[in-house]
Every structure is written in structure tokens, then in C-alpha cells.
Amino acid sequence: MYRIISKKNVLIWSAVFTLLLVAFLTLGYDNVCYASKWCYPYYGLLFYLEMDFFWAPIILVFLGIVWFLDNRIFSSWIRVSVPWVTVSLIISVLTPDAGAGFISTPIKFYVILGLYALYILISFFIILIQSIRIYWLKK
């Protein structure tokens, strides 16, 4: 499966989803949802769909780092990225919207941000360790 995932394919898909995220953020579905009734029930879904699209620019940044490095670094990074993003999207869909109790906190928002932060740290360390192995510890 990982053989069909190339740097070019990842670049194209992350660029497309980054453009969709920019469209969501610049067009602002807030006013549209309050002006019409078709998307009012889906307003929360649109917000979290927008949150899920933040994976694209993060992947795009790390792809920019990995693009000029050895292909072995890219393959190590993509072998972690594909399952991580897939499981994270499933977790973000299954996480409840708000906590119960007197003070309602947006649990889903914090779960998604935590998954982003962990992904950034793990990706950074994978790229760093693989770069050290390949470039400085040549055997």
C-alpha cells in the first residue's frame, strides 16, 4: 500500500485539502448557516470538518521538510502518518461534542488539538532520527 503513496501524490492531496480549508476559512459558512435553514443542523459538523482539514497544512509543512531529503526518510514518515491521520480522524468523529456537567467544555476540540500536537512531535522526531541515521551515521 505504501508503494503507491509518493511524494507527488501526498503533495497534491494535501494541497487540495489545504485549499478547501482556506476556502472554508475565507468564505465563512457562519453567515450562510444563519441566513439559510439548510445547513443549520449541520453547523457543528461543518466546524469539526473544518478542524479535520487542518491535517492538510500540517502534512504539507512536513512534506516540505521531507521533500528534499532521502526517500527512506519519507517512507518512514509516511508509514506513521497514514495510520496516525486515519485513526485520528476516526477518534475525532467518535469523540463527544461537549462534556457533561455544570461547565461544558468542548472535549472534541481539545482532543483534536492534542492529536495535532502529538502528530507534530512524533513526525519531527521520526524525521530527525531517520536523518541522523542516514546522513550522520553512515555505515
For the structure shown, list the relevant keywords.
139 residues, mainly alpha, 0% strand, globular, 6 helices
Characterise the protein shown here:
This protein has 139 residues and is an all-alpha fold. It has six helices and no strands.
Order of helices and strands: HHHHHH
Sheet having the most strands: none
> What structural class results from the helix and strand content?
mainly alpha
- The helix fraction, in percent, is over 70%
Strand content: under 5%
Q: What is the overall pLDDT average?
A: 77
* First-to-last CA distance: 29 Å
The whole-angstrom Rg is 18 Å
Number of helices: 6
Count of distinct structural domains: 1
Counting DSSP E segments of at least 2 residues, the number of strands comes to 0
Shape: globular
Secondary structure blueprint with pairings:
Blueprint: H1 7-27, H2 29-35, H3 43-52, H4 55-66, H5 71-94, H6 107-136
Brief overview, please?
The chain is mostly helical and 139 residues long. The chain has one domain (7-136). The chain has six helices and no strands.
